[in-house]
Amino acid sequence: MTYQPPVRDHMFLLRDVLNIEQYGNLPAFADASIDVVEQIVEGAAQFTGEVLAPLNSIGDKTGCKLDPVTNTVTTPPGFKEAYRALCEGGWTGLGSDPAYGGQGLPHVVNLSFSEMSSSANMAFSMYPGLAHGAYSAIHTGGTDDQKQTYLPKMITGEWTGTMNLTEPHCGTDLGLLRTKAVPNGDGSYKITGQKIWISAGEHDMSDNIVHLVLARIEGAPAGVKGISLFIVPKFFPNADGSVGARNEGAKCVGLEEKMGIHGNATCVMQYDDAEGYLIGEENSGLKLMFVMMNEARLGVGLQGVAQAEAANQAAVAFAKDRLQGRSLTGPKNAEGPADPIIVHPDVRRLLLENKAIIEGGRAFLFWTALHGDLAHSHPDEAVRTKADDYMGLLTPVLKGYLTDRGFQVCSNAVQVHGGSGFTEHFPVSQYLRDCRIALIYEGTNGVQALDLVGRKLAAKGGRGVMTFFQEIDQFVGENDGDAELKPFVDALAATKAQLQDGTMWLMQNGLQNPDNAGAASTDYMHLFGLTGLAYMWVLMVKAANAKIAEGSTDPFFTTKVATARYFIERVLPDAAAHLAKLKTGSATLMALPAEAF
Amino acid sequence: MTYQPPVRDHMFLLRDVLNIEQYGNLPAFADASIDVVEQIVEGAAQFTGEVLAPLNSIGDKTGCKLDPVTNTVTTPPGFKEAYRALCEGGWTGLGSDPAYGGQGLPHVVNLSFSEMSSSANMAFSMYPGLAHGAYSAIHTGGTDDQKQTYLPKMITGEWTGTMNLTEPHCGTDLGLLRTKAVPNGDGSYKITGQKIWISAGEHDMSDNIVHLVLARIEGAPAGVKGISLFIVPKFFPNADGSVGARNEGAKCVGLEEKMGIHGNATCVMQYDDAEGYLIGEENSGLKLMFVMMNEARLGVGLQGVAQAEAANQAAVAFAKDRLQGRSLTGPKNAEGPADPIIVHPDVRRLLLENKAIIEGGRAFLFWTALHGDLAHSHPDEAVRTKADDYMGLLTPVLKGYLTDRGFQVCSNAVQVHGGSGFTEHFPVSQYLRDCRIALIYEGTNGVQALDLVGRKLAAKGGRGVMTFFQEIDQFVGENDGDAELKPFVDALAATKAQLQDGTMWLMQNGLQNPDNAGAASTDYMHLFGLTGLAYMWVLMVKAANAKIAEGSTDPFFTTKVATARYFIERVLPDAAAHLAKLKTGSATLMALPAEAF
């Protein structure tokens, strides 16, 4: 079973649920009529399905190879050619700034391509993915000169980029970082230190690699207040845009052996007096790194859904194909030796859970990405503010909730395969193994949950979450009279009430004792994710009902409604459990001394 | 972090919770005073910790190699020597029949060794594990001659054994199997067919391998009613007990590439006119295979707990060692650069969830295994009947629930490690990958759930489940006045009421429409598992409280009580969610046609 990009579902979201045509007055959307968008989505499907997907298993089985003498990395067979095709197709600059050669399309359209790339080949998609993060940091914080030097090359894909945060003794706690930067006197710095887990840190697909490296300028304050961000190119750029001498001090000295994403080079990067250039202000590197980080977090949430989609497609194909046992209510394939296993209710439970999470999660991602576009360029300040609040609030939810659930979906997909799912002859093992990293990198899901309850919830006096509640209340009020929609609206209202209850509990108890906030954080994040998906499912049912009311007999729409019903019956009951758990507070968690574990 | 066998917890269960000394009147227990048992448990800890655990990662990284010319398999370095030590230590015959050279110890004592072996090295432990299953089938169904020929050699470990069920087109649905048996006229048969996923099917550690193979005798009825079981030895046994000529028709022609358990040879076995001997009656092979299968299912449930234990030990060690960030309530390691991550409530949540599942699950396994001993040899028929009912009822619960939860525990353990957990430099990736098969083999967890609701629940008019409810009711009644125990007893009573509610729903709705039973099955199995663990936790608290009341200040006992509190606060709320889900019935699950997935 090869991955089939879900064009129909993407267009349903863009056209029918989000109705992106209504934003034609925004610059990014002006050139993106729905017909143009459909062409892009179809082109993305063709490219990712035909070029990237066939390389996924090869990447897993071959992995990357480091030559310890030259410090160069060879990517799996076919990756280099696929990367060239990616650049030639213009896919690297889809959402980038037209001022530097990008196509300036809405983020929400770019997201469609990103999801498909990640489903087709997660390890491959991380090379351009990291490059885009580095692009964003330079775009936000770079000088004009830096922008002119780096952005056009990164948009064409000729140069890629990386994020260098982690060191052996510090990951989450960046305040501990030791990599140092010594001024050369000419505005440049000598960077020295070791960075680990640097995705796409070295490879053979692009002419240059632009490392963005967090380091501490000699004499800077300790902790996070003394961290600066540096551009450390693998090759020095010439004035004419060509690639000059090798920045000898920057090299890859090791590759990690990992559970998954073998096709992506996870590098140990050694910087020994490597030449680097400050980007942004001294000692405010972390702020700029968070530009990349927030983008990366949404991208990781997307990976959760993307791996889930690919894994579930494989599971559905297997469940229709594998003949084993008979339906409990009598043969459904009487002429065959057995029924396909999709007749069994418990197999359907796994597949419908997957479908409900994937499609709800995808809608939540697209809906949020659209807010990213609105935050960026909507003419109405109130809309921009609300959208920006949502982006801050929802980023940790999307990252944490969707990757937790995405991994479960992949595990369900393995389960549908039975013994075949544990072998490497079927693609699901790889999806499960690849997906596992998404719960960890760019801040573990526990860190996301803490970011949510400790920072995002309280930001601006809780304005974001209150706006979110108001939006749902308003939607519920406006749609309460719609009899077809009522069961779904009621479920949304009930879940939102649970989330509000949990929010109140946090406000009352988290301030008193911050351990209460930490203790509640993951359950709260899941409760938030469930509420978000409940909202998305009602929006999708409403859009589907409208089509049905217009006379459509397309089973796509009735299937949406049935899947929403599954979500309410079989996924939402977890909300009450999360609420009950989070309200138990921190006393039991904190009672035991470390030795007792 | 190397695995440390949990001797203390095993002895707490055997001595304080189950009080196995009370069964001194039973033959298996007569020679197993608690002091002897303690020596065995300590010996098991030493052997598994020192001999098996160091080979676990080697097995994962090296795997098994098949020589396609000789059809022989080389196991990972060290496995052969470890196997010899296993045999020399007498570990292969711990629970086996003294009539054939076994030590005849209680199953519940053998379980202690099995758990430790599986934690230390799951892939290795499957070689003797499968052999014991084959031993049990021959012990139950073999002729005297067959028993005399095979059992002594299997007990010493000189010969191992396998189970051959699955064929490429049939796994769960054994009625489809095609491997055929043609009588030779001398009582033996020629066996022809291909079997896949045969764990330990070929290896270099024992002198002989005794394959138990399901096949259809020429002319036998179609479906499960025409399946017979055959002994197909790799080498023909000589009359003097030595190994004779090679059974040329039986060979390994392939090894599976798998997500985990690389150290175990998962073989494609090709039988071409291999000589085999009927065991048991013609056409009743499945019944005998279920002797092995039920034993194997308990063993797989145990693997869930065993991998969870090993993974969690690694997570605890990492959480105490890794310095990152500060406690939300102020530094706990002020002289260090950061606090150990075990100060963070969400890290503790992961570790306590693991602890609550592992220790509760272990107790449930030991408690059930003890019923296995009682069913076998208690002088009171009523006790035997009840114990036998429990074994039937609880086997699918232990297999399905404990492996589902065991995998979650392993995933939690990866999560505690952050990025390190995704690399292969730390042991947790292997535990997660190895553990994943436990949800699948010996009947997927979906098949377990269906066995529970479709067969075991209704067996003998529901006698087993009703006895289980009565036992809990009686315990609740007897302990209701114990103020210390009351919160735990109340939680048990409430969970049991939910399970009873779910059982009633199933009885009313499952008969009406079997799809309702299938649709409810997995949630019901989890609700059952939660109830079982709730009961175990109350029993453990009661035993711990007794020690505390006697004046013990050992933190082991207060930790038990605190972990039980975590279980009630943070694990049991899922019970209500499972009940709500299972009561939604099958309508939504069955609504969509296969094409809609």
Q: Can you put this structure into words, describing what you see?
A:
Two copies of one chain form a homodimer. Chain A has 597 residues and is an alpha+beta fold. Chain A has a domain at 451-591. Chain A has 20 helices and eleven strands. In chain A, the strands form three sheets. The first copy, chain A, has a five-stranded mixed barrel with strand order 4-5-11-7-6. Chain A has a two-stranded antiparallel ribbon with strand order 1-2. In chain A, a hairpin with a 4-residue loop joins β1 (65-67) and β2. In chain A, α1 (7-17) packs antiparallel against α3 (34-52) and α16 (486-512) runs parallel beside α19 (574-582). Chain A is globular, with a radius of gyration of 24 Å. Chains A, B: Residues 163-273 form the Acyl-CoA oxidase/dehydrogenase middle domain. Chains A, B: Its cofactor is FAD.
